[in-house]
Amino acid sequence: MRPDLTEEILPALMTWLSAVREYSGRVAKAAGIGVTDLEALHELAQEGPMSSGLLARRLCVTTGAITHLVDRLQDADLVRRVPDPADRRRVLVEISPEAAERIRCDYRPLVDAVRGTLSALDVTEQQSVLRFLTAGTADVRTLR
Length: 144
What we know:
mainly alpha; 6 helices; two-stranded antiparallel ribbon
């Protein structure tokens, strides 16, 4: 029987998430923007253009708050509103190429650190991490 390390993994995962949030806080402060603004930029950089409504749900903010957030980011030339190619009546929010590059640069040290940690794992361990992250993300996105 395999040992179950769930009760050891859960607190370690929460600690890792806290460390990533702390890093993001430093990135936001250095960029002169709020953490929620940075989270919006990160979401758009990772997932691509999306409606304001979906962005609001991803960030757990109201539609009124997301309107102000997008206005603020648009005024700073970090995002733009563009027509939805599938339905020109809808508008999507997309990150500007300059902001996307800034996000990549700001997160490069974190990405490099995680890459180093992952490269120390063998392929089977990496597959387990990937399987956990893929399934875990899908599970968390279904929570209300």
